Amino acid sequence: MSYLRYVKLIGTMHVSPKSREEVIRTILNERPHAVAIELDRARFLAMNEERRLTLEESLRFGRRGLINYVLAKVEEKLGEEFGMAPGEEMKAAVNAAQALGVPLYLIDEDINVILSKIAAAPGREKLLMGLEVLGVFLPVKAGDLGDPMEEYRLMMVQFKRRYPYLYRVLVEERNEVMARNLISIVENLKLQGVKRPKVVAVVGLGHKQGIEHLLDRAKERRFLSPYWTAGAV
User: What's the CA gap between 119 and 199, in Å, rounded?
Assistant: First the structure.
């Protein structure tokens, strides 16, 4: 039996109001034993503070800080286009878990590890991404976006083709980390006496299929991940 039978993944667009509504509805309807979200502790704390570093502050952290600042600006721009600030669906998951009184787990890879990997990207991919980031800041008409979900899926296909290294770092390797942490959550719930654990995990749409594949392939056994995030928040 695979671990997929214990975990229901919600694939969201991080800037879509519909995703936020889906997260709330699914968690309240499923009434899981635990909720997991695609964040690490640093990003979770930053989300709760609702404060982003300025460019000047980011530069103090060197190359990593600059990369983090650029990625944040891209998310902000997308949030304006879709009508929701980045992270709103994660906040909705936190609130829903609190409403049900179930533990919340942070399952993503540490942001500092992710930024280190991005900083080590090939020069060609860094240059190309820099040029495309400039394009994101150009005005976009709502009518040009079409179906947001289809746009998102197309974006992932194009991203994988243009940035093979970054795709592996930002998508595939994080899929492995999150799948392992979800397996650990299931096994820990079993150790607590839950016979048929039910976990709802909120992740980006681009991660959903990959994580489901990993969970489906993993044979059910007692397993604690080396990436384990030290328990519930």
Answer: 34
CA-based max dimension of the chain: 54
Report the 10 Å Cβ neighbour count for 181.
22
CA angle 155, 43, 100 (to 5 degrees): 95
In Å, how far are 1, 24, 93, 167 from 88, measured between CA atoms? 34, 11, 9, 24
Whether the CB-CB separation of 59 and 131 falls below 8 Å is answered with no
Tell me 83's DSSP state.
Answer: T
pLDDT in tens, 64-87: 677 777 766 666 655 454 444 567
Residue 45 pLDDT greater than 60, yes or no? yes
Cβ neighbours around 191 below 10 Å, total: 10
Closest CA to 10 of 199, 202, 153, 197: 202
What does the pLDDT average to over 163-180?
92
pTM above 0.85, yes or no: no
Parallel, antiparallel, or unpaired: how do β-strands 199-204 and 104-106 relate?
Answer: unpaired
Residues 6+ apart with CB under 8 A from 3: 182, 183, 186, 215, 216, 218, 220
Residues contacting 10, CB < 8 A, separation 6+: 19, 22, 23, 26, 200, 201, 202, 203, 208
Given phi > 0 = left and psi -120 to 50 = alpha, else beta, which region is 7?
beta
From residue 121, alpha-carbon distances to 63, 125, 198 in Å are: 12, 7, 37
Q: Which residues contact 114 (CB under 8 A, 6 or more apart)?
A: 169, 170, 174
**Are the C-beta atoms of residues 38 and 203 closer than 8 Å to each other?**
yes
